[in-house]
Each structure stands twice: as C-alpha cells, then as structure tokens.
Design brief:
Elements: E1 2-3, E2 12-18, H1 22-30, E3 38-44, E4 51-55, E5 58-62, H2 64-67, E6 70-73, H3 79-91, E7 123-129, H4 135-143, E8 160-164, E9 167-174, H5 186-197, E10 202-208, H6 212-223, E11 229-234, H7 236-241, E12 245-246, H8 248-255, E13 259-261, H9 270-282, H10 301-320, H11 324-333, H12 336-342, H13 346-363, H14 367-386, E14 387-388, H15 394-406, H16 412-456, H17 461-479, H18 482-498, H19 500-514, H20 522-528, H21 532-538, H22 545-554, H23 564-574, H24 579-603, E15 615-617, H25 625-644, H26 646-659, H27 674-686, H28 694-702, H29 708-717, H30 728-740, H31 745-755, H32 757-784
Helix pairs in contact: 3-14, 6-14, 8-14, 10-11, 10-13, 16-17, 16-18, 17-26, 17-29, 18-25, 20-21, 21-31, 23-30, 24-30, 25-26, 26-29, 27-28, 28-29, 30-32, 31-32
The structure holds guanosine-5'-diphosphate (GDP) and magnesium ion.
C-alpha cells in the first residue's frame, strides 16, 4: 500500500482512501481530497516538510505526517478523473466563443415578479465564498467602503456590514472565507452561523472561476440552505484572458440559481449582480434545485440514502429550524452538532445508521467520503457541460516560476532573510529616515515660531508651558515617526497582498513546529511587527485553539511599529552611526526571547500535539495600487488620530503633573512634582536594571497608553535632553525593557477579546517580568564587562 508520503516530487497519483478522523478528515474531503481525485506532488518545502500538492487546479500544503493518512495508487481509475478528462476534450473547442461577456446572460428568474416581500423591508444579503475568492474586493465595490484586501487565506476574520451603493434598502455582510459548511476554524463558524441563524434574505455566493471545482463545492452546499441565492463568477478577467470561458446559461440551468459573471477587481458586471441579488431577495426566489444527488449516479446509493434520511428527520429539522436538505446531508455525513440539535429518538437513530451502512457498503466509501464524492461528481458534470478550461494561466505559470526561487530548496530561507533585512533597511534608514528628517525640521521650526509668538504676546506662563512643553514637545516628537511607520506598513502590505506570506508559512512550518507553533502562526507574527492589534485578530484563522493561544501570547515579542520611535530616539542620543545595528539587534532579540518563551509555553501551558497544516497557496498577484494606498492612508490616519488623542492627552497630563507639586503649586523643580512622587514609588524596582530615574518610570507607564508616548514623555521630562542624563548602558537596558514589556492598552484589549480577562491581565504582568529579567541580564553583562 502506497501513501502520499511515499511519492516523489512531480509524480501524479490517485487518492484511494483518506484515513484519519473528525474535523480534519472532513476538511480534507471538503478541500477535494476524496477517493478518485488526482493529486500531483509539486514539491517539498526546503526543510523537507510540509509538501505542496496540486489538485483540482489549485495548490495545497500538507505535512508528511498527515500525508501518511492518505492512501494513493498510480493508475488513474476513478470515474471522476474520467468525467473530468473527457469533458475537457469533448467540449474544449466547441464552446470557445459560446460564452457571453461580463455582465451578460443571467436572464434566469423562475418567479418573475410575483410575491414580493413587504414594502420597506431592509434586505439582508450575505457575501459567502472561499478564501481569496475576492469577497472583500467585491464588498468594497458594492458598498464603496474600504476594507482590507489581502492575498492569503484569512484576511477577513470577522463579519463586516455595509449598505449597497445606490440601494439604501439593502445591507450586505462580508463574511470570512469558508470552504464548506463544516466549519474548521473559529472564523469559519462565524460564516456558518450567519447563514444558518441570521437567515439573510439572500446569499451572494462568490466563486473564483480560476479554481471553479473547489469553489462550487461550497455552492452546492449553500443550495441546501433553502435561501435565495445568486452565484457571482468572479475573476472572469483572468479566465477569459487565458482562453477559458463559461456557458452561463447552461450553468444557471444546472444550478437553478442566477449566475452572473463578474470581475470585482475590474469593476465589471457588478450592477448586473446587484440587480439579480436584489431581485431574488425581494421576491424570495429560492434555489430551484437543492437536490443534487442523482438517481442514476453510482447506482443511486447516495440519492436513496439522503432522501431516506430526509423523510425520517423532516419534522425534527423543521422544529429545530434547520433547512431539511442541509440537515439530511449533515446527518448522512455524521455531523454530531446537527444530529444532537435534531433530537432524534433511539429508533430513528438506529434506522439512520442502517441507511448509512447500506450506503457505505454500496459505495465502498465511508459516509462523509461518499457525500463529498457525490457533490464533486455533480460539480464535474456541471463543469463538463458549462466550463471551457483555460490553458494554464499566465498567473499560474508566473507563480510557479516565482515559487521555484522563493520557495526553492536552497533559496527560500536566505531570500526570506534578505527580504526582511531589505525591508528594515529601507524603512528605517532610507525612506523613513529621509522623510522623518523633513518632518522633524518642520516641527522644530513651528515650535520655535509658536514659542516666540507666545513670548511676544506675553501669554500666561502655565499656558505657554503647556503649549510648547506639552503639545509641541510631546505630540510633535511623535509625529515625526509617521513616515517610518507608514513605510514599514507599506512593505508588510506588499508582502501580504502579493501572496508571499502564505509561502513563508509553508517553508517555515517545520521550524515553527519545533517550538510548538505551526506555519500558520507566521502570518499573525509578521503582522505583529506592524501592530499587535490586527496580529491578534489574525490568529482567528488558525484551526487549533492551542496554536492560536500560543501565537497570541507570542505576538508581544514581535516589536511593533509604535516602538520604532523609542528606538530611533535613543539611537539618535546614544548610538549615532550604529543605529541600524541596534534596530536589527532589538528585533532579533525580541524574536529570540519569543522563541525561548515559546519553548517554555510548549513545555508548560500548551503540551499536546501539533495540528495539521492544511493551507491553500494562492497565485502570486500584483498588489493593487489602490489597495495598498488605501491601507497606508488608513494606517496614517490611525496614527494621527492616536497622536492627537491618546498621545496628546498623555503628553498634557504628564506636563501638568510634572509642573505641580503635591500642594498644587506650580513648581520649577520637577523632582518635587506629583509625578515624581508617584513614580518614585516604583523607581526602586527599576533601579537594579539601571532605570531608577523617576522620569524613565513615568515614560514607561505612559507607554502603556500608546508606545509612542514614551518618547513624548521623555521629551517633556528631560528638558536638558536625554543624552547627558543617562549612561549608555542604562539606555540599552531601557531599550530592551521597552522592547518586551507590556503591550499597549489597545493590544491588551484585543487579547482580552480573544482569550478573556485573566489571560490579558496575565500578559501585562508576565511581559513586564520577562522584560525586567532581560534588561537585568543585559545590564548585568554590561556592568561585568565594565561598560557602566
Ligand atoms: P477574500 O479573501 O475573498 O476577501 O478576497 P480578496 O477580496 O481579499 O481578494 C483576494 C485577491 O484576489 C486579491 O489579491 C485581489 O486583488 C484579487 N482579486 C479580487 N477580485 C479579482 C478579479 O476580479 N480579478 C482578478 N484578476 N483578481 C481579483
Ligand atoms: Mg476578505
């Protein structure tokens, strides 16, 4: 018996049997790995594990340990492979031109204009589709909103609502991508519950036509939901550019719902789509067919099984509020939550078991494989009749070429390191630094001007101090870091939008597994270099709770961009000339401590097995200029908003508290101020790491609100400049401490949202403790080396 693990790169085999159990196995089946499927082993990751597979025209990652569960054979024997092959040959040339252009076709409407919903109903539409099918792009088109688009699985991790442009009566919800109605990760549950529980008036099912078989797998399950639906065939531009085509009318006839070809990216066919979607929603035109099992197919075993079950559970499904056809296939698949929800009695359960074992023996497949097989057979028949396969797309050829280098055996990791170095060099030294100088000069000139004006106007001393000392010194010092941060985000978004991060996950998986994580963790961790808040959110795409928790706990070790100002400020004062070294050193130190922490977590909090790593590798795509520009704008806006809210308030508070003593008298000696007294209580704890100065303590505390505040606070408190006030060793110790100590309030809030209050509070104290220890070691080493 051969398993997938035994085959060589470049070989094509046919799946015989899918082993394993539970949600993972279902996930395999849902991704199209079912008996009879042809698989090609594209390559192994540089470290030999995981592998990259090609099936149904897309790429998938799989670990060797999981590949072992899949039995394969060499001869292509299955009916599916044959249907698929013959269809391509037979229909190939004839239909070359027979498809309508974008936005055409789709005249299909069984109910015409009878029976509308009551006047004034707000139409709720749901946007459902696979990951990377273009949902968010379409959502932005439909609503004119500006959600983030990305090219790796799991950019949309939560639902987003928006009103359709020009149709105030219709609200559409962008949902996380799903491959099937059997949820596998926590974000997928969001999508399934939305469709099941919120009962939208209509579903817009977005289908990536460059990957149509796998995408239609979700479509046929959505048909079972008994909700009006429109299929949007997206990425038509890519398909037609490569000689493919779709007979839309044929597909409509077979699916029983309106089908509209569109290109979300090029904004074609969108209006047509909207009008069909609103029509089916308004007139509640449910799918004409929900029943895709065929009596004549494979002896009709699945057909009889599903209909048998449907009759048995009819009343239960109705009282449980589940669509009957959906409930029947879930019961046939053996989906426990649905079976429980139906509340079947003992006899009924037994009857169902009989029906199912009849199915299994007739088909020679187990229950879930038999159902998945039935669905895929239907899809292959639809595609055979309606789809002209493109020749290998330019995008795909390009992707393969790029991949040969970027995920090549000897090139992948060196290139990754080079790319990361290049990004930091460009952000910190070249682009960022240049723009930063420019802004600094501007802010400096402004400060002087205002200072002079206030002196001339003889303004009250307190107000003068507040404006110059608090506002300009504080907020102004932070503003100058905007360019560095925006540049950093620019590169991160290019990496993400191009599809590279998915590759990094692929070739880093083995290494990450050693410290108890999975390849999937790389996505949140890399985002963490930008900001911990979206990083923590991004962990929702991870199928294993254990990996997810652990990844969340590790994001604080990835130095976020808001800490950049701190580093830059200290580099200016203490390490001129070797700034670059300090930046890289700090980033790497953070990662190193993170790795140590991961090893610790793995041994204590999170024992247990690594979960499988099954992820789609999307084609490389040119990042959209609009998308990137818009992301940068959002980040800049966000930063400015923070500068003028949290950081401004913190600056003013710090200025105020350091200007008054305990008796609320204006004091010229900040050492007597309220702030000094309060911070003096914590200072002794910080003394052993060389940070006993109360002003440093205050700045770190203010950094809890927003990391940039650390700099503004120091700027306010050290009127004489920091260079002369600290030793170089203390400065280094300070840098190390700020690298690791508690994340800011916003990050803690998002950790609380994901893991709960206890964990969030734990993170605050734990990070401070680790930071203290790390700074202590650095300080100690410095003292021993005589650098004090
Ligand atoms: P989601 O994961 O389903 O939300 O997908 P996104 O909207 O984030 O898009 C995934 C990728 O597909 C992005 O790189 C988009 O630029 C790209 N994309 C979306 N629609 C189209 C289209 O109509 N044509 C082409 N060629 N690319 C598209
Ligand atoms: Mg999205």
């Amino acid at each position: 018996m051969t398993t997938l693990k035994d085959i060589k790169a470049g070989e094509t085999v046919v799946v015989e049997k899918v082993g394993g159990s539970g949600a993972l196995r279902q996930h395999f089946l849902d991704m199209g790995v079912i008996p009879g499927t042809e698989l090609t082993l594209v390559k192994f990751a540089p470290m030999g594990d995981p592998m990259e597979l090609r099936l149904h025209g897309y790429e998938l990652t799989l670990r060797l340990a999981d590949a072992e569960q899949i039995e394969v054979s060499e001869r292509p024997h299955s009916t599916q492979a044959e249907v698929k092959k013959s269809s391509v040959v037979k229909k190939g040339d004839k239909r070359q031109t027979a498809h309508p252009g974008l936005g055409e076709g789709g005249k299909f409407h069984p109910k015409g204009s009878g029976d509308p919903l009551p006047e004034g109903t707000t139409l709720k539409l749901a946007l459902v589709g696979n990951q990377n099918s273009g949902k968010t792009t379409l959502f932005n088109r439909l609503t004119g909103s500006k959600q983030h688009v990305g090219n790796f699985p799991g950019v949309t991790v939560d639902r987003k609502d928006g009103v359709i442009k020009g149709h105030p009566e219709a609200v559409i919800t962008d949902l996380p991508g799903i491959y099937s109605m059997s949820p596998y990760t926590s974000e997928e549950i969001v999508s399934r519950s939305f469709v099941l529980d919120e009962k939208p008036h209509a579903i817009i099912n977005i289908v990536d036509v460059t990957n149509i078989e796998r995408n239609l797998y979700l479509t046929v399950q959505l048909l079972e939901m008994d909700i009006p639906m429109v299929v949007a065939l997206n990425m038509m531009d890519e398909l037609t550019a490569n000689g493919g085509g779709i007979d839309v009318n044929e597909m409509e006839a077979r699916l029983g719902v309106p089908v509209v070809p569109i290109s979300a990216a090029k904004n074609e066919g969108i209006e047509e789509l909207v009008s069909h979607a609103l029509h089916v929603a308004y007139y509640q035109e449910k799918p004409v067919r929900q029943d895709i099992c065929d009596r004549s197919h494979n002896g009709g075993a699945v057909h009889r099984c599903l209909h048998g079950i449907a009759h048995l559970i009819d009343d239960h499904a109705e009282s449980a509020g589940l669509p009957i056809r959906f409930a029947a296939s879930k019961v046939a698949e053996g989906d426990e939550p649905v079976i429980t929800q139906l509340g079947l009695d003992h006899n009924e359960e037994e009857t169902i078991e009989h029906i199912v074992s009849q199915l299994e023996s007739e088909r020679g497949l187990d229950r879930s494989a038999a159902i998945a097989d039935m669905r895929f057979s239907f899809i292959f028949r639809v595609c055979a009749a309606a789809v002209t396969k493109p020749h290998e797309s330019r995008e795909h050829i390009r992707s393969r070429r790029i991949d040969r280098v970027l995920t090549g055996k000897y090139t992948a990791i060196p290139l990754f390191i080079v790319i990361m170095l290049l990004i930091s060099f460009l952000s910190f030294n070249v682009i960022g630094a240049f723009l930063q100088d420019l802004i600094e000069t501007g802010v400096g000139a402004m400060t002087e001007l205002v200072d002079e004006a206030l002196t001339n106007a003889d303004v009250n001393e307190v107000i003068h101090g507040l404006i110059v000392g608090g506002l300009f010194e504080g907020v102004g010092s932070v503003l100058s870091f905007l360019p560095v941060i925006v540049t950093l985000f620019f590169f991160l978004s290019i990496l993400e939008d191009s599809g590279y991060i998915a590759r990094v996950a692929f070739f880093m998986d083995k290494m990450l597994r050693k410290i108890g994580l999975s390849g999937r963790s790389i996505v949140p961790l890399l985002i963490g270099f930008g900001c911990s808040v979206p990083a923590v959110m991004a962990t929702r795409t991870m199928p294993s709770e254990r990996d997810r928790k652990m990844t969340i706990l590790l994001t604080p070790f990835m130095s976020c961009s808001a800490k950049m100002p701190i580093y830059a400020f200290f580099v200016d004062a203490f390490f001129p000339g070797i700034g670059w070294l300090i930046y890289i050193g700090l980033y790497l130190f953070g990662v190193l401590v993170g790795i140590l922490a991961a090893c610790l977590y793995k041994k204590t909090l999170f024992k247990g097995e690594a979960v499988p790593f099954v992820m789609e590798l999307p084609n490389y795509r040119m990042p959209g200029v609009g998308n990137v520009a818009q992301l940068l704008w959002e980040k800049a806006k966000d930063f400015l908003q923070r500068a003028f809210s949290v950081i401004l308030i913190a600056s003013l508070a710090v200025w105020f508290l350091q200007s008054f003593d305990l008796g609320m008298r204006l004091t010229s000696d900040a050492g007597n101020s309220i702030l000094a007294r309060a911070a003096g209580l914590i200072a002794p704890v910080m003394a052993p790491i060389g940070l006993g100065d109360w002003r440093l303590v205050v700045s770190l505390v203010s950094g809890f609100m927003a990391k940039e505040s650390v700099v503004s606070t120091i700027e306010i408190l050290y009127t004489e400049g920091i260079g002369s006030a600290l030793t170089t060793l203390s400065a280094l110790s300070f840098l190390v401490f700020s690298l690791i100590y508690t994340p800011c309030v916003a990050a803690i809030a998002s950790i609380k949202r994901e893991l709960g209050r206890k964990w969030a509070v734990g993170v605050v104290f734990w990070q401070c403790a680790v930071a203290w220890l790390a700074a202590f070691l650095v300080h100690l080493a410095g003292v021993l080396l005589g650098a004090a």
